[in-house]
Amino acid sequence: MDVPDIELIIQWWATCHLATLWQHFGHAARNKELMGMALLSAEKEHFEEEREARAVRKTQRDNAQKRKATDSLAAQNNKRRAVTPSEFSANSAHPSASAPQADNKDSVAGSVNSGLQELKDAMVNTYQELNKAGVNGQAAKRKKRELDLGMDYLINADQCMGLMCRRKVFDVCFDNEVADFDHLDCNPECILGCSRCLILQPMVCCDIHHPDRFSIYSSQADEPSVISRHSCLPKYTKQAPNLVLQDALDDWREQKTISTYGWSHLNDLGPSLVLPNCMLDRIVDCAHHRKINSILDLKKETGWTDSDRFGNEIITLIQRHAPPIASPFVTTPLSYPSTGNVPVLATPCPAARTNAPTLKHKNKCSACNNEGHNARNRVCPRHPSRAAQNKENDQS
Fold this sequence. Notes:
By secondary structure, the chain is mainly alpha-helical. The chain has 15 helices and two strands. It starts with 7 loop residues before the first strand and ends with a helix.
């Protein structure tokens, strides 16, 4: 690809090697009359400040775990024997005096070396390790998941006292200082040599030497405000009002896509360009549970980026097609009095029942029709045992 008028190259994330990155940057300003810019957006964990902060957090976590282990061990020892003050002070001493030294050594060893000669030696050792590992070896695959050494020096060039220049990283890694210039051989008739092969020194080096030229690309966006978490909605079965609201939202987003972006975008990309399907389903669910009453509620429950723009229209549709609110009260129709003398009693409302104690049902005997016993109970005067006793009394 040889496009001469590319003025800006952006590499998103440091996922490639330094040679691949330089090839990407080389597509800028093929026309020598133009000046191109190349930007690298690296992940946060690749910067030296973040590594040091992460090492400090790790040290604090390790110290906290050591203190917990020491306290638990001391508590166990207290149950067995008495601990002297000297032993207790030795066991419960804060380990921050000795532990950070080892961690600092590890962090310094793993950090970017500060020096030009260190970079050269590190690049030579890296290439030798890659040649020994092989292209198809397991070690080579593991190396691909790690950050390239040259990319590491490029990102943290401002922290290396021997470099302090991002362009110098490319010169060292590609050994440009000892490279032969063949522009004089291409055109010996010209004193300056071939104009195409002649390497010109750029007027702008990098953001370290010319920070004002890259200030327009710095991000000045404020941190987004913290939005409260959305509600956890229980499962339910969609009824007719929910389906009507879903159809109304579907028709609205189609019309809004046409009026905002045109019929071609609706045909190519669909109505999800304005309101995604997941947002539509979320609005229907929240409307069923009465969770959306304002634009702030809509933004909280859905996280829709166009809530401020189209929020009023969505709330109007919700109020128009939302299912009715179920009343917590139960009504009973009035009873009309009859023409006779028998009074008509209204059916008591289930919701208006009092907590008065109910009378316990008493058993009724089928033999003597008295309450409090049954026919099999000997208390009953007509029980067969009583009849035999009366017969014996008559015979006597």
